[in-house]
């Protein structure tokens, strides 16, 4: 690997981490779309900063751009608060307007500058190593690495300092207010960090793909864990994985690095979406099917419990009587036999002790809705896991 | 009663949503140590009253004091059980972690919860019979269990005054009994508890103080004196007969 290759992967990874952290909270706050809005509407701020400094690399650009990101959030909330339009409509109204103001500003005034729209939308990671940070003539590495590295450092320190405040105001804004943690301050703090991160990631991945880096890792992690810290950790892991794998995919295909990173993120999400152990599509479908069978099992056991007479308990009678097809009857019978809930003697079915106990507990639970009655059978049956 | 200290005083409180008043000129003086129910029809402003006392909703007029001082000076004396439906139970966290949030108020900004906060949270979970569920993801709990987690979180606040927004809403028998027992214990410990309550039948049994509310305050005082057909009719606007009399 050449040093430029290493630098590109390093920048991509740091961008991914810096995006994954605020992204996790945006996803939990159901504000994923706002990152899309911010990523577009920072453009006029960027251009304005450029007009003031005439330097594309001035830190002032980051500040003016981040400010226009926060202005987006304020405008969206203002429009939404009038209750004349809904939130998604408000977002859809605000950011294209701000973005196009930026586009017009570039067209009118900055034609001679290389603020080109393609780079803004897609970024160009491959060029990042060419722009060096020179101090007293010595080369300290690519400039964008320094910019996004600083942003990441700030994000991580804020996360450590205000983790508890972020958690409580995201989970329960009412209690957070009552306890004196101003959710409004936290909200705008988070929006500022998100805006600054978007600006810092701009060079590398551009306005459209930065959204993917914020949302996709967090959305993927959400399907895999029940713990906020782990969710943050997993988001970071997925982000970095996509950054490095994406780089090599682009290398191999000779295609855009940011495009390849996003493709990898999409693929990773799809895999997790399908195969996540608890919340994945396949496991949900499997669980639904199991629950269906278990409801049938319970119906069947209740029937046995209610009818002592032999004619009601004959194996063939069940097909006609409970009105089930053969396949279903068989799978229910198999499940009951496998769990030692019934015994079949000369085609006559009877409940075992265990079957009787299970049925009693289940009835008890259904009547009283008291969970303690079914703790012992919860592990074996999806039906009772709430 | 006259000699009793006033725990919560509400003066001329008016709250409006979009210029439509939902609470109009409310005056209340809630004595220390009472168990008070707030009753009234849907949309009467019961939750709004609690939320504006706690500073969650900004009133357009009036003031609130807790033991004679504004709420934001007295936060640490006040515990809060919000409506269960007000949060996202899919949030990635455990029962214990939610209860720990009750200790955040005393910690203040930046400081992290440590061993003693964890101990407080575990004790609170035990009081509501949820200790064995401490590591369970909150969306794996039943509605009643979630309500008990919320109650435990308020207990972890270790407050003198508690506000509870419909804690009995849709809970199972075990949870109802747990809540009642906790209420009794709080009263025994001399705490003041204000509960938004829906079930009029149980008011005389569970509470000793009551406020009738329907945008305006209809009446407030001891259950024995004011929980009668007259006030119920004034509050609910129909001829009301209390089927359970004390």
Report on this model:
The complex is a heterodimer of chains A (386) and B (246). Chain A has helices at residues 3-28, 32-41, 43-53, 59-81, 87-109, 117-122, 143-171, 173-178, 183-222, 228-253, 257-275, 281-306, 315-323, 326-338, 353-368, 375-378, and strands at residues 132-135, 138-142, 342-345, 348-351. Chain A has 16 helices and four strands. Chain A has 386 residues and is mainly alpha-helical. Chain A is elongated and about 95 Å long. Chain A is 74% helix and 4% strand. Chain B is 33% helix and 26% strand. With 246 residues, chain B is of the alpha/beta class. Chain B has a six-stranded mixed beta sheet with strand order 6-7-8-3-9-10, sandwiched between helices. Chain B contains ten helices and ten strands. In chain B, helix 5 (115-127) packs across helix 6 (143-156) and helix 6 (143-156) runs parallel beside helix 7. Chain B is globular, with a radius of gyration of 18 Å. Chain B has one domain (6-236): Rossmann fold, CATH 3.40.50.300. Classes of the chains: A mainly alpha (386), B alpha/beta (246). At the A-B interface, helix 7, helix 8 and helix 10 of A face helix 4 and helix 6 of B. Chain B: Keywords: ATP-binding, Nucleotide-binding, Transport.
The stretches of 5 or more residues of chain A where confidence is low (pLDDT under 50) are none
How many β-strand stretches of chain B? 10
Share of β-strand residues of chain B: 25-35%
Shape of chain A: elongated
The assigned structural class of chain B equals alpha/beta
Q: What's the gyration radius of chain A in Å?
A: 29 Å
| Beta content of chain A | under 5%
Order of helices and strands of chain A: HHHHHHEEHHHHHHHHEEHH
Strand order of the largest sheet of chain A: 1-2
- Please report the number of helical segments of chain B: 10
């Amino acid at each position: 690997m050449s040093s430029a290759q290493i630098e590109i992967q390093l920048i991509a990874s740091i961008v991914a981490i810096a995006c994954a952290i605020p992204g996790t909270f945006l996803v939990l706050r159901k504000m994923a779309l706002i990152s899309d809005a911010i990523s577009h509407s920072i453009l006029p701020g960027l251009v304005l900063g450029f007009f003031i400094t005439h330097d594309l690399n001035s830190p002032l650009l980051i500040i003016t751009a981040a400010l226009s990101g926060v202005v987006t959030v304020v405008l969206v909330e203002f429009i939404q608060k009038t209750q004349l339009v809904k939130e998604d409509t408000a977002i859809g109204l605000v950011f294209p307007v701000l973005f196009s103001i930026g586009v017009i500003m570039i067209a009118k005034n900055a034609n001679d500058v290389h603020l080109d729209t393609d780079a803004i939308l897609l970024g160009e990671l491959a060029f990042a190593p060419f722009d060096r940070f020179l101090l007293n003539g010595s080369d300290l590495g690519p400039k964008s690495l320094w910019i996004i590295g600083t942003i990441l450092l700030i994000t991580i320190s804020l996360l450590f300092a205000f983790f508890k405040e972020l958690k409580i105001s995201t989970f329960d804004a009412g209690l957070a207010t009552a306890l004196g943690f101003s959710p409004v301050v936290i909200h705008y703090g988070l929006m500022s960090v998100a805006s600054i991160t978007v600006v810092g990631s701009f060079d590398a991945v551009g306005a459209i793909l930065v959204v993917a880096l914020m949302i996709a890792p967090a959305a993927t992690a959400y399907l895999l864990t029940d713990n906020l810290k782990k969710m943050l950790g997993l988001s970071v892991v997925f982000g970095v994985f996509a950054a490095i794998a994406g780089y090599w995919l682009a290398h191999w295909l000779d295609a855009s690095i940011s495009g390849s990173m996003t493709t990898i993120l999409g693929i990773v999400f799809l895999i997790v979406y399908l195969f996540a152990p608890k919340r994945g599509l396949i496991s949900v479908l499997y669980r639904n099917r199991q629950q269906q069978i278990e409801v049938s099992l319970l119906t069947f056991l209740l029937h046995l419990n209610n009818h002592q007479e032999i004619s009601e308990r004959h194996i063939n009678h069940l097909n006609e009587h409970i009105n089930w097809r053969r396949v279903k009857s068989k799978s229910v019978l198999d499940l009951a036999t496998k769990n030692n809930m019934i015994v079949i003697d000369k085609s006559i079915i009877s409940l075992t002790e265990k079957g009787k106990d299970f049925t009693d507990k289940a009835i008890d639970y259904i009547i009283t809705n008291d969970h303690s009655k079914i703790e012992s059978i919860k592990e074996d049956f999806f039906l009772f896991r709430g | 009663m006259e000699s009793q200290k006033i725990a919560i005083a509400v003066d001329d409180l008016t709250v409006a949503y979009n210029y439509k008043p939902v609470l109009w000129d409310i005056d209340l003086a809630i004595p220390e140590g009472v168990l008070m129910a707030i009753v009234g029809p849907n949309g009467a402003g019961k939750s709004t009253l609690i939320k504006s006392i706690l500073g969650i909703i900004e009133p357009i007029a009036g003031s609130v004091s807790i033991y004679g001082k504004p709420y934001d000076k007295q936060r640490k004396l006040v515990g809060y059980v919000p409506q269960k439906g007000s949060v996202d139970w899919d949030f990635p966290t455990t029962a214990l972690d939610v209860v720990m949030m009750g200790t955040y108020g005393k910690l203040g900004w930046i400081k992290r919860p440590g061993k003693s906060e964890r101990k407080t949270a575990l004790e609170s979970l035990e009081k509501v019979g949820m200790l064995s569920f401490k590591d369970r993801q909150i969306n794996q709990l039943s509605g009643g269990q979630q309500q008990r987690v919320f109650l435990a979180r308020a207990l972890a606040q270790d407050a003198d005054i508690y506000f509870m927004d419909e804690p009995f809403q849709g809970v199972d028998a075990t949870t109802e009994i747990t809540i009642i027992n906790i209420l009794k214990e709080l009263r025994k410990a001399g705490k003041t508890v204000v509960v938004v309550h829906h079930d009029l039948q149980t008011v005389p049994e569970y509470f000793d103080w009551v406020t009738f509310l329907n945008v305006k305050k209809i009446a407030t005082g001891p259950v024995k004196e004011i929980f009668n057909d007259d006030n119920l009719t004034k509050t609910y606007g129909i001829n009301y007969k209390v089927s359970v009399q004390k």
